């Protein structure tokens, strides 16, 4: 809240300067003095700031609606446009692009330039006009921002879908050139494949420079670039097996998977320091903790209630076990979670946590996971769901999707599951086991 008030104080100074320079102070004063706006519009500035900070902490779109109530509320509160990427307060973390299905990928002419988004906590839907999807594909969604790749040039854009703010980054093709200098040569057949599956982490320094790190899961490496850079910089070191990656607090947390009885490690990769960014590529990642292999197999990272959560199997691969990463850091390995309340975790190419209270057909206190355990993709063609309360497996939804997508109408849980699988999320297709799909506008 102090950060919001500080931005509002800065906004007041900027507002006063702009009003005096623009010569519109008299017209604005007359409108603010209108008796029709003398009720809610006349709230004391301290109370107005307090309400605005509460609304903004809840949801960005609620804050935008708050500012639209009257002219005075709009004038006296900071505008998110122009600050959507550089100011974390204005990022839309709970919003996810909605997979339409039916071949309607983002940018499809039938959508008329509109893209739908839904809120993972409230289940609210909004529709936004985003013409840039005509020639871009979505790669990831860090902190509610959308990482776009130009289909022809591979240039990267970081887009805020609700403010329209865009930050430009170098083409992904420059990654391949830099890797070649390190002796890592990639065939033409695999070039698109290696830059398709990325996890991004975004950070902003004190002077407003935006840096982005990309975890290349198929290459077991991380690359970074900042605004103004002409190319991506890869790490000189390589992980054993980049099994899972998650942006958290401006850093990138990854699970470096071990094989057999070798424990996996949770690593933290920080963005480059402002004083010496050139040394970033040679600095090894910081080990946060080791995953106890006797308690946890095939670990995955997820963010739940603003904390890091580790999800995996027990030794017999018969049930799911969960740990808070903070407990593992303290050496506490007996505190396995048995409840996450109304939250539901989806483990896939992208790990997501949603609120089941607002999303019909999503079961709370559960984990939906994409693999062969519990009769999964390689079994009966169903989506396995693990109930933490009873410790039992069941199907995530009725029906099979082994050879082709489920018949319509699609349940909301199937759309959420599609968001976890990036092959389908941007393709206009709903998730099925047959992965012979394109990338939407690239088809």
Topology:
Blueprint: H1 2-22, H2 25-32, H3 45-58, H4 60-67, H5 71-75, E1 95-97, E2 114-119, E3 125-129, E4 136-140, E5 146-150, E6 156-159, E7 166-169, H6 173-181, H7 188-196, E8 198-204, E9 210-216, E10 221-226, E11 233-234, E12 242-248, E13 251-256, E14 265-269, E15 286-290, E16 297-304, E17 307-313, E18 320-324, H8 325-329, E19 343-347, E20 352-355, E21 366-369, E22 384-387, E23 392-395, H9 412-420, H10 422-425
Tally of DSSP helical segments: 10
- Please give the number of β-strands: 23
Strand ordering within the main sheet: 20-19-21-22-23
How far apart are the termini? 46 Å
Morphology: globular
Secondary-structure-derived class:
alpha+beta
What profile does the largest beta sheet have? 5 strands, mixed
Radius of gyration: 23 Å
**Which percent band covers the strand fraction?**
25-35%
Helix amount: 10-25%
Q: Any low-confidence stretches, pLDDT <50, length ≥5?
A: 12-23, 372-379, 437-443
Q: Which whole number gives the mean pLDDT?
A: 81
InterPro entries: KIB1-4_b-propeller
Protein name: KIB1-4 beta-propeller domain-containing protein
Pfam family, one: Beta-prop_KIB1-4
Domain KIB1-4 beta-propeller: 117-367
């Amino acid at each position: 809240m102090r950060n919001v008030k500080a931005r509002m104080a800065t906004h007041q100074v900027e507002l006063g300067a702009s009003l005096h320079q623009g010569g519109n102070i008299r017209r604005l004063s007359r409108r603010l003095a209108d008796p029709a706006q003398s009720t809610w519009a006349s709230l004391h500035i301290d109370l107005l700031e307090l309400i605005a900070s509460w609304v903004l902490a809840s949801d960005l779109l609620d804050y935008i609606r708050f500012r639209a109530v009257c002219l005075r509320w709009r004038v006296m509160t900071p505008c998110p446009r122009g600050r959507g990427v550089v100011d974390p307060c204005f990022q839309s973390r709970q919003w996810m692009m909605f997979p339409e299905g039916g071949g309607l990928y983002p940018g499809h002419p039938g959508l008329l330039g509109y893209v739908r988004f839904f809120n993972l906590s409230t289940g609210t839907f909004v529709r936004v006009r985003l013409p840039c999807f005509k020639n871009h594909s979505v790669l990831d969604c860090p902190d509610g921002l959308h990482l776009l790749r130009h289909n022809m040039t591979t240039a990267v854009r970081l887009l805020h879908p609700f403010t329209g703010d865009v930050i430009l980054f170098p083409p992904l093709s420059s990654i391949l050139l830099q890797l070649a200098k390190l002796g890592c040569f990639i065939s033409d057949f695999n070039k698109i494949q290696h830059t398709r599956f990325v996890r991004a982490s975004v950070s902003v320094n004190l002077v407003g420079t935006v840096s982005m790190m990309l975890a290349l899961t198929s290459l077991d490496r991380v690359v970074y670039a900042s605004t103004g850079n002409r190319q991506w910089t890869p790490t000189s070191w390589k992980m054993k097996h980049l099994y899972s990656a998650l942006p958290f607090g401006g850093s990138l947390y990854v699970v470096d998977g071990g094989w057999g009885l070798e424990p996996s490690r949770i690593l933290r990769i920080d963005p480059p320091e402002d004083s010496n960014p050139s040394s970033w590529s040679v600095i090894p990642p910081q080990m946060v903790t080791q995953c106890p292999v006797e308690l946890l197999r095939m670990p995955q990272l997820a963010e739940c209630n603003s904390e890091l959560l580790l999800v995996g199997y027990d030794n017999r691969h018969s049930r799911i076990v969960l740990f808070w990463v903070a407990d593992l850091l303290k050496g506490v390995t007996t505190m396995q979670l048995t409840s996450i309340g109304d939250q539901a975790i989806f483990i896939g190419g992208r790990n997501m946590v949603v609120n089941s209270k607002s999303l019909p057909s999503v079961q709370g206190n559960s984990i939906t996971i994409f693999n062969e355990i519990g009769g999964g993709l390689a079994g009966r063609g169903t989506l396995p769901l693990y109930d933490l309360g009873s410790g039992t497996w069941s199907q995530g939804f009725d029906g099979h999707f082994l050879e082709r997508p489920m018949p319509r109408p699609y349940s909301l849980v199937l759309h959420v599951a599609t968001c976890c699988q990036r092959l389908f999320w941007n393709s206009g297709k709903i998730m099925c086991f047959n992965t012979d799909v394109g990338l939407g506008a690239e088809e």
